[in-house]
Amino acid sequence: MTKFNASIAALGAALLLSGNAFAATVMPASGEGPFFNDQPVVSSSLQRAEVRADATRHLPASDEFSNHAEVKQAASAVTRAEVRQDTRDAIAHGFRVASGENA
Prior knowledge:
The protein is mainly α. It has four helices and no strands.
């Protein structure tokens, strides 16, 4: 009976460990799909020079804020120096800039 139990245990272990092999799905493994078997083969009508020119016109964004939309600056008639001087004059005449928790 011991031989019989050992063979049953070995058979059960083999079936238990090979269960995933029998449970195969129709989905492809990672990286193997989706299958594009019926794609038409078309050669490009563009020349190499045209492709390079288009690539140089549309360079990829590669800076810190590449995923943000470009911020449009408002057109201003005054310079930074003029604004700073006006601020100094206003402070000299008693204007206090609201800052801190009371602002």
